[in-house]
């Protein structure tokens, strides 16, 4: 495939995976007002927290680059993050530390992070959650498979969660420079695992995971 066709295919793929407000509009039609999108970042990492975000967007607002954070480059996510925080009706983040993950397992810690994020947004009456149904959430909710690709508010939450966590991991790199957290962000790359094998885990590694 030549370069021109590759670019066309990439643009088509991004267009086809642009989320919409279809779910939010349907809920507004049912009488809900403050609809929050919820997603997480970092569940699969070997180190650092799992971070969740909750975002309420003005219905129908168009924000460039709001889509599943995994489809964006780091620079694009940073740009989208700034636009989201400037535009959102409300947004928040919640996390669960490596020690909390070790104590309760990653799924329960992810639920905890999501509850913490949603709990900081005032007057929420419905939550749209990427993939999960969150036990103990105090508002009505709907878990949507691949919600970060389909639902605009969830896509926005995926970006907020990812950028927030990446910034945290770059800060941890200053504290623990031998692991390369500024590059792999705590995920299980070959170089990261080799660092753990060579010098052992640090305080933010998840001891309940297979680290190397």
Protein model, in words:
This protein is of the alpha/beta class and 212 residues long. The chain has helices at residues 3-16, 22-29, 74-87, 98-104, 106-119, 147-150, 152-175, 181-184, 190-199, and strands spanning 35-41, 50-56, 90-96, 126-130, 140-144. The longest helix has 24 residues, at 152-175. Residues 1-15 have low confidence and may be disordered.
SSE layout:
Elements: H1 3-16, H2 22-29, E1 35-41, E2 50-56, H3 74-87, E3 90-96, H4 98-104, H5 106-119, E4 126-130, E5 140-144, H6 147-150, H7 152-175, H8 181-184, H9 190-199
Parallel strand pairs: 1-4, 4-5
Antiparallel strand pairs: 1-2, 2-3
Helix pairs in contact: 3-7, 4-5
Relevant terms:
about 210 residues, alpha/beta, Nucleotidyltransferase, domain 5, 5-stranded mixed beta sheet, globular
Summarize the structure.
The protein has 212 residues and is of the alpha/beta class.
């Amino acid at each position: 495939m030549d370069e021109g066709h590759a670019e066309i295919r990439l643009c088509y793929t991004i267009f086809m995976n642009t989320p919409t407000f279809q779910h939010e509009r349907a809920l507004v039609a049912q009488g809900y007002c403050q609809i929050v999108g919820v997603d997480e970042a970092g569940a699969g990492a070997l180190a650092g927290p799992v971070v969740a975000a909750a975002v309420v967007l003005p219905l129908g607002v168009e924000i460039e680059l709001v889509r599943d954070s995994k489809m964006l480059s780091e620079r694009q996510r940073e740009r989208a993050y700034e636009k989201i925080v400037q535009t959102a009706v409300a947004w928040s983040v919640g996390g669960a530390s490596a020690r909390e993950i070790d104590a309760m397992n990653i799924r329960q810690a992810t639920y905890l992070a999501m509850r913490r994020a949603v709990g900081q947004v005032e007057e929420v009456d419905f939550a749209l959650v990427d993939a999960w149904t969150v036990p103990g959430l105090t508002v009505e909710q709907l878990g949507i498979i691949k919600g970060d690709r389909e639902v605009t508010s969830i896509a926005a939450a995926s970006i907020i969660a990812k950028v927030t966590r990446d910034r945290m991991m770059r800060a941890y790199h200053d504290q623990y420079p031998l692991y390369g957290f500024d590059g792999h962000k705590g995920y299980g790359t070959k170089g990261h695992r080799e660092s753990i094998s060579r010098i052992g885990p640090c305080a933010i590694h998840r001891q309940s995971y297979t680290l190397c």
